[in-house]
Amino acid sequence: TEETLVLVKPDGVARGLTGAILARIEAKGYSLVDLRLVEPERGRLEQHYAEHEGKPFYEPLVEFMMSGPSVAIRLAGNRVIEGFRSLAGTTDPTTAAPGTIRGDFGRDWGVKVQQNLVHGSDSPESAARELEIWFG
Ligand code: GTP
Ligand code: MG
């Protein structure tokens, strides 16, 4: 079985969507291994988003991620990395397919950062790296 890091980002927590998002994850059959409310400092976010350093949305993204608490989840299941990203939908919430978390709940607010509610690791290597950052 595989593990991934899921974050309910500050927009999801602030909008009270944590429960709705967890319900979809649980209904799909994935297992919650660990879960915590976190208010990350800049250093942790810079590590987490290292691959995006230098991109125009990087700094606004880091700021946004410090704007309120996130829920970090260690999630387990067969092919859960791919499976959660499928549940989440594509990055842009405006065009994410209906039926996905981003497609159903996300919206492009016209700000610099897409407030797309969730993060999910994109590969086994990313999952290992990110789980270490958020859960140690
Ligand atoms: P995550 O699961 O959050 O990693 O999403 P992703 O893998 O679909 O996207 P990616 O890793 O490419 O980008 C990480 C985050 O940066 C996204 O979730 C968005 O919040 C933001 N982001 C990515 N690309 C863009 C972009 O082109 N413009 C803006 N404004 N934000 C972006
Ligand atoms: Mg990503």
Concise overview:
The protein contains 7 helices and 4 strands, in the order E-H-H-E-H-H-E-H-H-E-H. It has 136 residues and is α+β, with helices and mostly antiparallel strands.
What does this structure look like?
- By secondary structure, the protein is of the alpha+beta class.
- The protein has helices spanning 10-14, 18-28, 42-48, 58-65, 80-88, 101-105, 124-135, and strands spanning 2-8, 31-38, 70-77, 118-120.
- The protein has one domain (2-135): Alpha-Beta Plaits (2-Layer Sandwich), CATH 3.30.70.
- It is built from 7 helices and 4 strands; from the N terminus they run βααβααβααβα.
- The protein has a 4-stranded antiparallel beta sheet with strand order 2-3-1-4.
- The protein is globular.
- The structure holds guanosine-5'-triphosphate and magnesium ion.
Annotate the secondary structure layout:
Blueprint: E1 2-8, H1 10-14, H2 18-28, E2 31-38, H3 42-48, H4 58-65, E3 70-77, H5 80-88, H6 101-105, E4 118-120, H7 124-135
The chain binds guanosine-5'-triphosphate (GTP) and magnesium ion.
Guanosine-5'-triphosphate is lined by residues 57, 61, 91, 112-114, 116, 119-120, 122.
Protein name: Nucleoside diphosphate kinase
Cofactor: Mg(2+)
Catalytic activity: a 2'-deoxyribonucleoside 5'-diphosphate + ATP = a 2'-deoxyribonucleoside 5'-triphosphate + ADP
